[in-house]
Amino acid sequence: MTSHRRALREARRADASGSGPTLQERPPARYPGAAGAFALFGEVLLTGLVIVLGGIALVTLPAALAAGIRHLRRYLNAEASHPRMVWDDYRRALPGGLIVGVVGVVVAAVLALDIDLAASGALPGGTVVGLIGWAGLVALAVALLAAAAAWTPERGWRPAVRGIPSTLTADIAGALYLAATAVFVGVATWMLVPVVIPALGCAALAAVAIPARRRRR
Predict the structure, then answer these.
(1) How far is CA 87 from CA 23, 35, 50, 74, 105, in A?
(2) Which burial class, exposed, middle or buried, applies to 127 when counting CB atoms under 10 A from its CB (0-12, 13-18, 19+)?
(3) Is position 111 within any domain?
């Protein structure tokens, strides 16, 4: 009886890890690389750290996000993802990503200035202007996540950026999920700056999972 239970436990472990035969017929897992919750959490933290280090100059954030998202996508699909591959993605995303980053920083600075002026009372209708400014920042973050998720070394940034409107309008619920993700990153960072590492990792995970959710449906 004891040997039977031991064999059953080993079979269950092999079944769960994918290293052995399955105990019952079932469709393949959507994300075979995410079998272990703790391992996935660690990979999200690592991805967040990579994004923070790669995007610390702000204008390099799009390239860092694109590299981090591609790394997590490979991990979730149980594909090989050597650190050298992350570096190669970052290096190839950087030239066009710098242009996207500069435009993003300029737009964010203008919106932040509007929010600051609205809060000071120097503008008429300051409350409305402030709300528009905050909404603009969220929309900017959503566009950045969508473009970074669509970037590939073969396509480059131009198709990824041009495809933002069609991507978001084709999945309104997904766009709202990305907006909630952007708000979460902002609030978490505002509350405690070091939390930006796991927050950005979660944002990269959301950028992978949300489009896949639409295809699955």
Answers:
(1) 39, 25, 10, 14, 23
(2) exposed
(3) no
Query: Are 64 and 51 in contact, with CB atoms under 8 Å apart?
Result: yes
H helix runs in 121-170, sequence order: 126-150, 157-162, 164-170
Q: How many domains does the chain have?
A: 1
Record the tokens describing residue 40, joined without a space.
Answer: 């996935």
Cα atoms found within 13 Å of the Cα of residue 184, Cβ hemisphere only: 15
Domain assignment present for residue 5? The answer is no
With a CB cutoff of 8 Å and minimum separation 6, the contacts of 184 are: 199, 202, 203
Q: Could you tell me the CA-to-CA distances from 214 to 31, 165, 170, 208, 209 in Å, in that order? A: 15, 16, 10, 11, 9
Range among 11-15, 72-76, 124-128 with highest mean pLDDT value: 72-76
Structural domain contains residue 152: yes
Give the whole-angstrom CA distance, residue 202 versus residue 180: 12
Cβ–Cβ < 8 Å for 123, 117: yes
In a domain, 105, yes or no: no
Average pLDDT over residues 143-147: 96
Q: Which domain holds residue 45?
A: 33-96+139-216
pTM > 0.85: yes or no = no
